[in-house]
Amino acid sequence: MNPLLKLVLEIGPLGVFFASNYKFGIFLATAAFMVAMVISLAVSYAISRKPPIIPLVTAVFVLIFGGLTLYLHNDTFIKLKPTMVNGFFAVTLFVGMYFGKALIRLPFEAALPAMTDEGWAKLNLRWAWFFVFLAAMNEFTWRNFSTNTWVDFKVFAMTPITLVFSLAQLRLIMQHQIPEHELVTAEKADAKETAGS
What we know:
By secondary structure, the protein is mostly helical. It contains nine helices and no strands.
């Protein structure tokens, strides 16, 4: 998928949420957010023919907590959503580490250069703690500030912070990148092994 289109599909629903909140309030904004997430996923699937893991999980939480917000007319649920999403990702990555799996590879492997297992393990740990950090930031913000301030934080703070954190991992990725000649050698060895069997 075109990177610019992918970015629009990922942050577009947040833009809809922000604009709707300031024009119509948090409840209509929540409904608009839910619709925008579903549309974003549908377009993404229509283009790539496979569901994006992280946006898909996020959309499930948006629909659950957004639905509770509208049904109970209580905006606490939509404010809790980022905490629950980031907490879920953090726990998933930590559990994967416990079983010796760097689950961060699932959404990122296709987009990143081939890395060593050590590199994936380090990246997995960093993202796990970063998700904990995001969950803690969300909890602090929605419990201590107004709804509009929380919306501003969600749109204009969490997204840039995540982008900066992602860019900060480039050094680690490059340090643990597997040289191309080693990949070619490994692929040839696998091919010979497959042919011999």
